Amino acid sequence: MISVSIDGIKLSVAENTSILEAALHNGIYIPHLCHHKDLPELGACRLCLVECDGISDPQQSCTLKAEDGMVIRTRSEAVDKLRRLSMELLLAAHPEDCTTCPKYGRCELQTLIQYMNVSATRIHRRVKSILKSTNPLFNHEMVRCVLCGRCVRACCDMRGVGVLQYNKADMETYVGTLHDRLLKDTDCRFCGACAEVCPTGAIQDAKSFTAVEKHDKLLPCVANCPAQVDIPRYLRYAKENRLGDAAAVLREKLPFPGVLGRVCNHKCEEACRRGELNEAISIRNVKRYIADMDKQMAWKSKARRMPLTGRTVCVVGGGPAGMTAAIYLSKRGHSVTLKEAMPKLGGQLRYGIPEYRLPRDILDSETDYITQVGVTVECDCKVACPEALLREYDAVLVTTGTGAGVRLPIPGNDLQGVLLNTDFLRDVSTSDQTGIGERVVVLGGGNVAFDCARSAKRLGAREVSVVCLESRGGMLADPEEIEQAAEEGVIIYPSSSFEEICGETRVSGVRIMTVSSFRFDENHNTIIKKEPGSERIIEADTVIFAVGQRPSPLPESALELKRGYIALIGDGTMKTSIEGVFACGDVVYGTASVIEAIAAGREAASEIDIWLGGDGDISETLAPTERAADKIGIIEGFYGLKRAEELLLPAQMRSSGFSECSGGLSGDNVCAESGRCLQCQLRLQIEPARTWTDYVGKGVAQQDAQ
Amino acid sequence: MLSDNREALVRVKSFSPDKIRELVSCAYLYGKPGTLGSLLNRPYRAVLGALYNADTDGELSRLGEMNPHGIVAGLSAAAALCGAGESVLVLPSGNGFTQLRSAAEKAGITVADEDFIDCRAHADDLLLHWAALAAVADLIIGEPQRIITSVNSRLTEVMPGEPVGSVMAPGDVKAVRIGASYYTPSVMSEPARAELFAAGGVIKTYGSDCCIVQAAYEQIMRLRKRCCGKCLMCREGLFQFGEILREITKASSNPAEPALAKEIGEALAPAAHCSVGEAAAECMLTVLENFSSELDSHIKKKVCPAAQCAAFSAVYIDPMKCCGCGDCIAVCPEDCIEGKPGYISMIDDVVCTKCGKCAEVCPEGAVVRTQSRIPRLPDRLTKAGRFRR
Ligand code: SF4
Ligand code: SF4
Ligand code: SF4
Ligand code: SF4
Ligand code: SF4
Ligand code: SF4
Ligand code: FES
């Protein structure tokens, strides 16, 4: 350590520290522009000048290494005069229109101008020719560039990419790319380091955000994931072929990665920033590959197990939410019993989602983990009154989901041959008789409707149709579900209303009409506008209602309900009306995705742990925690890299049985696909801009006008 | 020094570092005070032999054709002297220097084709001018050390200590530019020192018919072309210098500008990372110091002593000579000449920019440029040949 004095304050700093770093680190502000904590120094702006005893001229503090016994003054007449001159010269080449600048209010230069209180009045001004270009994710408005060179150093030195450089046209130097190409035509990695470090409005995010929004806007995949899985981290490991580490990242947040790798509704991909270049990363398929390859499960040795607390919890319902909660509660040291009404664990994963989407061996291998962490599982155990369990357990969590199908009130809804989605899919899964005939009509347009239709097809139905209110583009099911079903021969009737199920005792058809528009009123009733004279009948012997699911009733329970769902006592809590009874998952908010159920299960585990006297911290560090390397280098043609296609069985082979449709990605493709990721989190590793206002109160005040 | 010093290259290989130190520590540095020996107080990663960034004349590059082996010998000696791991010879891009290139390669020196040296990237390297290397080679063979310069485009040598003027032809000299600095003729009697020969090491004289403000403006513009634009002070300072000098020649400057130029010049010198900024500061500061009366004359008296600045002159059409052909009217970019065929053309002095286009085309030589009073001219359209004084 070295001791220096800055403005009379004695500081002890590490060797090889610059005076500027030493000052800023200790809350002493010295104005600076070209300096950035994470970049090599350029020593170009001369705003950081200080006086150093023993040296006659003011010195650049960013390049002045601290030496033992140095006495520094950050202000003097000479220093102030030189700094002001630098600022005046800088401003002479900068437009005077802060108010029309998109960076207004978030601009480092602007705060420097305020701090120094300088304008370029005695100086010859100039307007540089406007160079403006729109790139994916970033806008370049180089007329605002002050040539601090931070972006060039970020791109070259920090990232090792080097697409930004100093160019010269006649006398004017400007920052640009080789031959002034657009970023998409260069080797740009769209890492955003340039935009992050730019102190002006010259290189800016196309969509601006506030400091609070920054994390979510820059890392939208993670923000959009209900369980906040660290996606860029496992993609990076996958790219580096460190699949065990990648699996560990998944396991930090998800107990069932193999399941999710197949059935997750992948909200992350919708938000992926790669999508603004060409196509989103195939995140789900990469996850699937990682999970499938994880035979070693090395992460298990790092899993956190707390000593037994002696407290007991009963989880009612063995779907994804219940299983997740049980796992984490058990890891927190509580004795957990999981009661499941069906013969096996899994809930909708087992009795809802058909096998061609989720092979049962995958499900079994992942649900096994529950007993491994010590949860006592009781299947075939229907609970009629959860609160009664409080006599035996300290806490009860209800995650009974939405197991009951909905029968629409239309004529003929109880004819023979009318089935409910939940019953049908359960029967498909348990290989019981399903009771379908040759011609099946499914009413509904969500993923479950397509599960029903595609299962019916696989069971040998000759003609299967899906009828739904929504237009083709507005259907709720995932686009790939619709597409694959159509390939398999499922006929789709979008924009259709269900008028009547025809038939005497058995179904003979469904009468439908064409819908021109529909909406929901304030009471959640559908208001439908139909085209007159558009009636038609689809002949059928079987009709399956797939228009939603509701919780199965808990016959003896006194839990307060809200429209049939368990009512919670407030936002942000999973407590029910009965002290000690908690609820989460579909049974609370209606049918949602598997990943939401898992996220809810985690939250419930945390809340119950607190309620039982723990600290609620269910986090685990299973993967290496090293910081990602900043230097990403060049990948040729990075912009245009195409999304990897999953291997899909041909439609004919798919519809002839229940074997899995999709083979996911091949190993090579996984590497390539992960390599397409922009690694958006890298930008968050860069020190965010700090301005003089961050130092106010520590003796910093705006400089007085001269 | 101006002829190929093969001998030095042979000898340098056989000398021990101590011997080399003994012989060449006293070598001068171009454009910098001190000697080679004074630079050896710190370690260097590499030794770089190059021309200076601020060399806007390119004259000294001819040394590369004339004394290639001397340069290579000097570079080898310097590298041996400071124990640098690598020696690099920087050649201006383009063809030529074949001998120099091959001699360097043979001597195990890295050759880099570069028109501009990024001094930040070479912060740990020792940068020596080709001329300094040639001088080192001379010292190795026991020759006295000379300073090389190009006087009005003729490459020549001057002995240190001899008056600068000894290599110059006598004549009408108002100013002497050495490198980018402007001196009064008194510099000619000063003893030659290598540190005087900064930038391109060129000596150029200016007669009384030259405007020093214009000359300095052009020099600044040449430097601006070379400026890499990284240092704020250099990039923006050079722009301001250019503007300030241009406005002075255009008669539109204000009296505060020399002070501003001085402030920038003094701030620029220590801020520059390479010779471009240093040379520009020198250029501006020497003009301010040595030619203040010429600047004052432009700014306050509105007179260009060399009668070169068009803005201070008036252009008029001699009514006794104009034949009324109207050729001037056709070329005037400002459309400020009134007249019709057979009538004496008249220039609107307020609008006229003194560009001189009209004078170029006038078949009678009737367009006159003057720094003094305009004689009485017609005040209305007058037939050619009819005007009476
Ligand atoms: S970049 Fe900053 S200083 Fe420049 S106009 Fe925009 S807000 Fe103002
Ligand atoms: S690679 Fe990164 S730092 Fe370089 S231009 Fe592209 S986004 Fe900016
Ligand atoms: S674009 Fe921004 S970061 Fe890059 S040089 Fe210009 S002002 Fe600095
Ligand atoms: S590019 Fe990668 S880090 Fe960025 S949003 Fe997409 S998946 Fe996430
Ligand atoms: S002094 Fe001028 S030319 Fe030299 S490095 Fe700085 S900006 Fe570039
Ligand atoms: S000097 Fe130029 S502007 Fe003036 S009159 Fe002649 S042509 Fe026109
Ligand atoms: S911050 Fe030190 S010179 Fe720019």
Topology:
The complex is a heterodimer of chains A (706) and B (389).
Chain A: E1 2-6, E2 9-13, H1 19-25, E3 49-52, E4 59-60, E5 71-73, H2 77-92, H3 108-116, E6 132-134, E7 138-141, H4 150-158, E8 165-169, E9 172-176, H5 193-197, E10 203-205, H6 214-218, H7 220-224, H8 231-239, H9 243-253, H10 257-263, H11 267-271, H12 283-293, E11 312-316, H13 320-331, E12 335-339, H14 348-351, H15 360-372, E13 376-378, E14 395-398, E15 404-405, E16 418-420, H16 421-430, E17 439-443, H17 447-458, E18 463-467, H18 479-487, E19 491-493, E20 496-502, E21 509-520, E22 526-530, E23 536-539, E24 542-545, E25 549-550, E26 561-562, E27 565-566, E28 581-583, H19 586-589, H20 594-611, E29 647-648, H21 651-655, E30 662-664, H22 667-675, H23 681-684
Parallel strand pairs in A: 1-5, 11-12, 11-14, 12-13, 14-28, 16-24, 17-18, 17-24, 18-19
Antiparallel strand pairs in A: 1-2, 3-4, 3-5, 6-7, 7-10, 8-9, 15-25, 20-21, 21-22, 21-23, 26-27, 29-30
Chain B: H1 6-14, H2 17-24, E1 46-50, H3 63-66, H4 68-82, E2 86-91, H5 98-106, E3 110-113, E4 126-129, H6 130-140, E5 147-151, E6 154-158, E7 175-178, E8 181-183, E9 202-206, H7 212-226, H8 232-249, H9 257-271, H10 275-290, H11 292-301, E10 314-317, H12 327-331, E11 337-338, E12 346-347, H13 357-361, E13 367-370
Parallel strand pairs in B: 1-2, 1-4, 2-3, 5-9
Antiparallel strand pairs in B: 5-6, 7-8, 7-9, 10-13, 11-12
Annotation field: number of helices of chain A: 23
Q: If you consult CATH, what is the topology of the largest domain in chain A?
A: FAD/NAD(P)-binding domain
Question: What order do the strands of the largest sheet of chain A run in, or round the barrel if closed?
Answer: 2-1-5-3-4
Helix content of chain A: 25-40%
User: Order of strands in the sheet with the most strands of chain B?
Assistant: 6-5-9-7-8
Low-confidence stretches of chain A: none
Distance between the termini of chain B: 66 Å
Oligomer: heterodimer
Sheet having the most strands of chain A = 5 strands, mixed
Molecular shape of chain A: elongated
- Based on the structure given, which CATH architecture of the largest domain in chain A is correct? 3-Layer(bba) Sandwich
Content of β-strand of chain B: 5-15%
Would you state the CATH class of the largest domain in chain A?
Answer: Alpha Beta
The count of strands of chain B amounts to 13
